[in-house]
Task: inverse folding
DNA sequence: CCTACCGATCGGTAGG
DNA sequence: CCTACCGATCGGTAGG
């Protein structure tokens, strides 16, 4: 029993509901994530949306401008979840686990986010770095601070390199979802591969941060 | 005092020395790694080599065939270092550290290898997965076995998920070199960022595998 | 938001 | 290994 389209996810129906701009962003995000910016034509995105190419170029003046808009939309969504991440990082029990789970949820909701970030870091590392410095700075600073404070109180291993540790944990989270289809070489065809990878990621982050005595 | 070109690294001089095919592979590897397959034109590679486009298409019949050849060359080089990696993994002291350092050296020698692998895992995950299953299987099996045996003897943490752990450590090594230009958001402009990341990677792998008592 | 069209470049081929 | 060229597609614009 199909309900009247309430949350249309495919670009064509989003466009049909009136939000052409939003439909273009969704279609472009999928194409850029799965095939890359350079391998995606404006025409292909227009086809996904059900519009003519010049219509797309009315909403986004150029192809590079569309890329920026896609990245803006991604980082806007990050800003939406950031408060929850910060809350998890600064209060309550099991701060590390709940913080990681919050970030993981962001990529779990849409693995295209992870693929897009990884592609950008390959295509235009300097540009992404500049963006992330602004958008990611507060969260990273808090985590680094949390690690350093833990080290002063002996709760965190003394030999942890706080900045490098955060970098690697973020890399693990992004890479985990961006490379889900291939990194399971070792995991064969385990049906629960995704959950196992997330669980092991969290375990690795925890054991590499805290001494055994405090687990 | 320039010595007579002994180890020419740029495609044009490799071609001039007679190895046109090799020059094409080097140029294609660089372009595919830095800009991606879809964003690289056959003409651009031919220009790097100093040949005409039809000459390139004489050596490699199609652009997709060139991509396969580039990947073949990469995995051939891996086969060269594999014995050393296996030796490090199966004998001597500090097996884990020396094994990781051997693999890290492979990517350190040419970070394009890491970028290329990451791009392939985004562009064609199924194809790369099939390739890696053949090429990477022996090494992964040995490491997984090593972890499992360690768990039986109590030398390795009981809650380690061997397959997921290997997957993540490989992801860290590849990602570390592929995203060197951007992942340092947290590391600011530390001049020793690269060494710090490698050191922290090894530390994370070690502490997430072994209980503190056995360090 | 469309049709019609632009010059440039794409991967690839004919022929030598 | 080259020159010359192919049809198709590229991002983008004119004009409405």
Result:
């Amino acid at each position: 029993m199909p309900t009247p389209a309430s949350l249309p996810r495919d670009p064509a129906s989003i466009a049909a509901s009136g939000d052409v701009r939003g439909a273009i962003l969704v279609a472009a995000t999928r194409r850029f994530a799965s095939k890359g910016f350079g391998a995606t034509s404006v025409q292909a995105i227009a086809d996904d949306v059900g519009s003519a190419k010049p219509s797309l170029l009315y909403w986004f003046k150029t192809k590079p401008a569309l890329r920026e808009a896609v990245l803006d939309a991604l980082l806007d969504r990050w800003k939406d979840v950031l408060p929850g991440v910060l809350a998890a990082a600064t209060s309550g029990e099991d701060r590390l686990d709940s913080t990681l789970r919050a970030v993981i949820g962001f990529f779990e909701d849409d693995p295209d986010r992870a693929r897009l970030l990884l592609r950008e870091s390959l295509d235009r590392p300097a540009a992404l770095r500049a963006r992330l410095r602004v958008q990611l700075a507060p969260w990273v600073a808090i985590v680094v601070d949390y690690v350093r404070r833990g080290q002063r109180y002996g709760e965190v291993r003394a030999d942890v390199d706080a900045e490098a540790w955060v970098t690697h944990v973020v890399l693990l989270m992004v890479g985990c979802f961006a490379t889900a289809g291939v990194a399971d070489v070792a995991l064969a065809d385990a049906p629960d591969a995704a959950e196992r990878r997330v669980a092991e990621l969290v375990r690795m982050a925890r054991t590499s941060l805290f001494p055994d005595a405090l687990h």
